[in-house]
Amino acid sequence: MQIWIDADACPAVVKDIVFRAAERLEIPTILVANRMLRTPPSRFIRAVQVPSGFDVADAHIVSQVAAGDLVITADIPLASAVLERQAHALNPRGEMYTVANIAERLSMRNFLEELRGAGVQTGGPPSFSQADRQAFGAALDRFLARAIRS
After folding, report:
1. What 3-state class would DSSP assign to 112?
2. Distance between CA atoms of 143 and 97, rounded to whole angstroms?
3. Single pTM value for the model
4. Alpha-carbon distance 28 to 146, whole Å?
5. According to the model, what pLDDT value does residue 115 have?
6. pLDDT tens-digit profile of 32-61?
7. How many CB atoms within 10 Å of residue 128?
8. Which is nearest to 80 in space by CA: 68, 97, 55, 63?
9. 12 φ/ψ angles, rounded to the nearest 5 degrees
10. Cα 139 to Cα 95: distance, rounded to the nearest angstrom
C-alpha cells in the first residue's frame, strides 16, 4: 500500500499529519503537484512534479495508483477515478469517498458547477478548521489501522 496526496490544494496541516503517519508506519507516500514541493527528509516520502495543465496531477495519480492504495484529495472526479481502480480516497476534512457516496458527491458537484456557470454565487467551502484537522487525523488513523490488520 502507498499513500498518494493530490498536493496542489492540500492543506499543509493535512500533509504534516500524513508525513507523521508515513514515518511511524513506514508507508511509502507520494505527493503529486504541478510545482516543486518541499518534503521532510525521509525514505518514505517523496514528491513528483508533473507539467502544468488541467488535471495533469490527477491523471498521473490515476495512472499510478494501485488497488488498496489511499489517495488524499478533495477533487471528487479524481476520487471517483481512484475508486474505479479499487483504491481508496479520503478528503482533507476526514470523509472517506466510497462507491456508495461518490455518485451523490459527483451529482452535487456538477449541479453547483452549473449554477456557477449560470452566474449564481454558490460560495465556497468553509475555511479549514481545527475540527476538520481532527476529523482527518481520526479517519486516517482508522483507515491505516484497518489496512495494517488486513
Report:
1. helix
2. 12
3. 0.88
4. 17
5. 65
6. 999 999 999 999 999 999 999 989 999 999
7. 15
8. 97
9. -60, -40
10. 7
